[in-house]
Amino acid sequence: MHKILVTRRVFDEVLERLGRHFAVEANQEDRIWTAEELAQHLADKDGALSSAVDPLDASVIERASRLRALCTIAVGYNNIDLAACKRAGIVVTNTPEVLDETTADLAFALLLASARAIVPAERWLREGRWRAWKFDAWLGADVHHATLSILGMGRIGQAIARRAAGFSMRVLYHNRNRCDAALERRCNATWVERETLFAEADFLLPMLPYSAAVHHIIGAPELALLKPTARLVNVARGGIVDDAALIAALQERRIAGAALDVFENEPALDPRFLALDNVLLTPHIGSASQATRLKMAMLAVDNLIAVLGGQAPPSPVRF
Ligand code: 8YV
Hints:
Elements: E1 3-6, H1 12-19, E2 23-26, H2 35-42, E3 47-50, H3 58-63, E4 69-72, H4 82-88, E5 91-93, H5 100-115, H6 118-126, E6 147-151, H7 155-165, E7 170-174, H8 181-187, E8 189-191, H9 194-200, E9 203-206, H10 220-225, E10 231-234, H11 243-251, E11 257-260, E12 279-281, H12 290-308
Parallel strand pairs: 1-2, 1-3, 3-4, 4-5, 6-7, 6-9, 7-8, 9-10, 10-11, 11-12
Bound molecules: 2-keto-D-gluconic acid.
The site of 2-keto-D-gluconic acid has 10 residues, from loops.
């Protein structure tokens, strides 16, 4: 029987299914293992179910001499050294598609909450400060008929664009490769140059997978193109946005606000964010619905069963 490792806590039903196929060691205690601990636990394993926060760098991969399948329960895999996996002949898989709609829901929740100051208004009410209704209190920005600018029109970008139609928004997007006309019609989205995308945005949403090529793709020069009334929403990955540049723009009120689910160096986000009243912060919960987390884990199990059974996995990472 193949030996496998589950690096973080998962639902019991996921472990039960794994147990029917493999000898399972599971980190149900859920303490995040260091690279050294991961390497030790992986030493005798044929496969692993991992998460997006495990440091699966070359030092870990090179010591996992039996490992054949590395199946992450995430769509993003920038925590995995793919070159080291290639050298070692390890198949890497991820969990795309099953989380698209849930992540798009969160993007929209953050967009709405930021525009209408939902979180500070609720906090103010709880503090017992609501004494009288006021004509000019808590004035936010309209979402309906506003311009939504999406950088990177992949599956999640498209799911966000479809939601925007219900709010009669104008949707602009920029991709290196323009989408085909049928897809643009389905998303009611118009391709524009990068500069236009930034300059016309009421809401700017980067929806790209992280790679070195897109590091700080939204930095000081891009933020300078935004209107003072614009808001940035990031549910993609830390590192796509230059957090220091964003903090400066928010501090100086050069943009109206931001709503962020992902950060550089998370969970140790830049503490200056916490002092700002024009930013909404959530702890990387894009795919965090009960149903979607189960689908992600089960897809990772499908991948693991396939690879260790000598079959093609349903969602390999191609590299
Ligand atoms: C994960 C994510 O839940 O899939 C991804 O890439 O960012 C989230 O869906 C998170 O990274 C934990 O694995």
